[in-house]
Amino acid sequence: MLLKTLLYRNCSATQCYEAVCINKSSLKKLDALADRKDSTVEGTLNGTFKIVLDNIDLRITTRDMTCDRQNKDIHWVNHNAVKNRVTPGNNKRVQLDLSLLDYCQLLPSAADHEKLRKDFTHLVSRVLVEHLPCMQFLQTVCLQHIPHQYSNEMAQKSEKVFFKRHYSSISDADKGSLFADRNLINRRNVTSDVHSNWANCKAFALLEIKARIIAAAMVILGMENINEQPKHLPVSFDMRNGTDQQKKKYLNNISGKIVDQFVLDEHSLNDFVNNVLSEQEQEDIVNNQNLTVDGRFPCRSQGCDKSFKYDGKRRRDHELTHDPPPVIPEKPVISPDYPKEVNSTSDADDVFNYNCSVLNQGLLFMDFLDATSEGDGERSIRCWKFFLLHFKEEKSTTKYSLEALYLLFQVYSLLPPDEAHSLVWNRTSTTKVAQGKMLL
Question: Residues in domain DUF6589 (predicted)?
Answer without folding.
Answer: 162-420
